[in-house]
Amino acid sequence: MRVLMVVRPASGGMKEHVLALARGLAARGHGVAFAASAASEITDAAQEAGFTVHDIPLTGPLSPIQDPRAVRALSVIVRSGAFDIVHAHGFKAGFVGRLAVRLLRSEAPPFVVTAHNHVLTRTDTPAATRWRYRTVERSLERYVTRYIAVSESIARELTGAYNLPADKVVIVRNGVDVTPFLAEQDSAAARASLGVPADVPVVGLAARFSAQKGLRDLVAATPELVRRVPGVRVVIGGSGPLESELRSQAVALGVSGSIVWPGHVLNMPRFLSALDVFVSPATTEAFGIALIEAAAAGVPTIATRVGGVPEVILDGETGLLVAAHDPTALAQAIVGLLDDRRTAIKLAEHARRRAIMEFSPDAMVEGTLAVYADVLGIDGAAPADGAPSGVAG
User: Fold this and answer.
1) Which CATH number is 179-358's, of 3.40.50.1820, 3.40.50.2000, 1.10.760.10, 3.30.230.10?
2) Tell me: the pLDDT tens digits for 103-128?
3) Taking Cα atoms as reference points, which of 282, 281, 260 lies closest to residue 271?
4) How confident is the model over 281-303, as a mean pLDDT?
């Protein structure tokens, strides 16, 4: 089987998802190539992994100038590549891919789209944006053979808010390679690299500084943490458009000395080993790969009850869930786990076992192959005759 992955410029969770899927397919003898913008992290990573990448001008936002070029370029690649499946990831890649499929008509192979994130059910999505996304999805739905949702909450959005046919939507949960997070880390060295004393409580996360990550609420919860937990440090790794606002908020609340801003985190297993509690205050979250990474690293986790998070964190069993937009509840939960280390360790142990058993890349790859086999009308997804073992150009 030959698969063409169509991906917009992506980093973080989507990048890791697509690369894990591509590697898993290649390891099973299927040919995989990418169609993506040359100037992107996903392209660099795919080429480094040995995959062929076809350059198309696929940018982030909708573009009346670039998008027609991307459609034409993609249609040429699909027509000449003899691909059995075209698999787009995310709204933008799905939009361009559908127009290319429409252009190719009967020449087009089955077209699969994976929905990675919430749009219509997010409270911060403008009404005009919701209307635009819904209109595009409904008008071009007939060109999609199957939608893959990475969580039940995404599936509900596709069949509910978008009103897409339920028989076209399949749930294949994200898989995460947790191996790097299972290795023992030097916690004291990790804290030293962050400039944090070895003997103080440390909570935090690494994320993009955007509204949906809920970092304003974590900063707002910090005064209560400082009041109730002497010496506590809140570590907020990452960067993004809200960085200046968040730093100003910390100064205004008088807690800037208790918050550590280490910038972009390059080594997540080491970073997580510095934490006593991992906190995810997101206001929207389709799945939460970082939650699985924290679980695999053995860090007790507190997260907000949004989107697909309750599918990853079982409240009271593998972590604690609190309401979004509630800094007081967030602070209380953090203090509770810092005070009750027996419960914290128990939750972390259960979470680690579940991360290893239920969210493996193999399960994601096999689930995706089952979708491919279904749309191709075959009994299984064994490599096609003549398909190379590994990557395809």
Assistant:
1) 3.40.50.2000
2) 998 889 999 999 988 776 666 678 88
3) 260
4) 93
The per-residue pLDDT for range 338-363, each reduced to its tens digit, is 999 999 999 999 999 999 988 889 98
What's the CATH architecture for 2-175+360-376? Answer: 3-Layer(aba) Sandwich (3.40)
Task: Tell me whether the CATH fold assigned to 2-175+360-376 matches the one assigned to 179-358.
Answer: yes
